[in-house]
Design brief:
Length: about 350
């Protein structure tokens, strides 16, 4: 299939997406590489899309959504970004770095209380943020209302805040990940690869939503599957479905994706979001030792653990398979590292 034979509605979608205002942070297409030793070990053809190698902001695919979100913030003459998540959030770190790069302030909101140790992503976010607020509430959702409250406060102070939802999970941000699906498609054409399955981690759902939208609009035969690292499977499927439909609507496409069309696997969250698990530690050690690629304990380590177990038991995947390395290595260096030997 080539872009030239796509129907007019889909052509229109891609044309609108390509001209959507966005700042330029991704200088190059990220590497698509075969994981030869892992493939031999698991007896399955596995490739890796290396979004951890995005050149800006210590890498990670959060930059893809931020290209579009920051462009929208600048269009609205914003002077400060307001966002939040957990203290080791890749999204918050990437947002703070992008804000400073574009001459904007950034206010960050974290759930819970301030940690005793300033390390990993938190060290970077705290260094760059103009203000850091903790909700003093362990519920992750407490970030959402606090972002709204902080924006109202900033407005009263004469500032022009631009709110970015927790994890960057919104329809506009998801469009950046739809572009990633197109990028992989074009790479596969050049390398003569026809993937059957795309595997990734999912937290707030924006990455999966964008990839699913892009895949459907390209008419690709591959399946998008993810492993949840925070929410229950049912909740994240509803979230992804909503984001897909809202993102399509932004570009005047009446695409309806039901939650039953979203494929998310559970069972690998461990003791909770952001808490390293035995399975993730094992997957991180294995990939590093056989491929020289570092995963993180919050997202990609848990997704890789789930993927490897599913391959090992011989169910669910068709090949070739592409694993999306969404980045997050700074969180690998948080804490004392004892989790690696658990």
């Amino acid at each position: 299939m080539t872009m030239s034979i796509l129907n007019n509605g889909v052509h229109d979608f891609w044309q609108r997406l390509q001209i959507l205002p966005r700042i330029s942070l991704l200088r190059n297409t990220t590497l698509l590489q075969p994981l030869r030793r892992l493939s031999e070990m698991l007896q399955a053809e596995i490739w890796c899309k290396r979004d951890d190698l995005i050149s800006f902001g210590l890498g990670g695919n959060k930059i893809r959504g931020l290209e579009i979100l920051i462009a929208d913030a600048l269009r609205q003459n914003a002077d400060i970004l307001v966002t939040g998540a957990g203290v080791q959030s890749n999204h918050v770190r990437a947002t703070a770095m992008t804000a400073r790069h574009m001459g904007l302030d950034c206010q960050t909101v974290f759930w819970g209380s301030a940690p005793k140790c300033v390390d990993g992503n938190y060290r970077i976010s705290r260094m760059l943020a103009s203000s850091v607020v903790f909700t003093e509430n362990p519920e992750r959702s407490s970030v959402d209302s606090e972002i709204t409250r902080q924006c109202k406060k900033l407005l009263r102070q004469g500032r022009k805040p631009y709110p970015i939802p927790r994890g960057g999970a919104c329809a506009l941000g998801a469009l950046g990940h739809a572009l990633a699906a197109e990028e992989l498609y074009l790479q596969c054409l050049k390398q003569n690869i026809i993937p059957k399955t795309i595997v990734m981690a999912t937290g707030s759902g924006g990455t999966h939503a964008g990839w699913l939208l892009g895949t459907k609009m390209l008419g690709n035969p591959w399946r998008i599957v993810s492993y949840t690292v925070s929410r229950e499977v049912e909740e994240v499927c509803v979230q992804i479905s909503r984001l897909v439909n809202e993102a399509a609507k932004l570009l005047d496409q009446e695409l309806i994706v039901g939650e039953d069309e979203v494929i998310v696997y559970g069972g690998f969250i461990g003791d909770g979001y952001g808490i390293p698990s035995v399975e993730a530690a094992s997957a991180i050690r294995l990939l590093a030792s056989c491929e020289g690629i570092l995963l993180d304990p919050t997202y990609t380590g848990k997704a890789m653990a789930g993927m490897m177990e599913k391959i090992h038991i011989g169910s669910g995947f068709n090949y070739p398979l592409v694993f999306i390395h969404s980045g997050g290595e700074p969180s690998f260096f948080a804490g004392d590292g004892k989790w690696l030997s658990i």
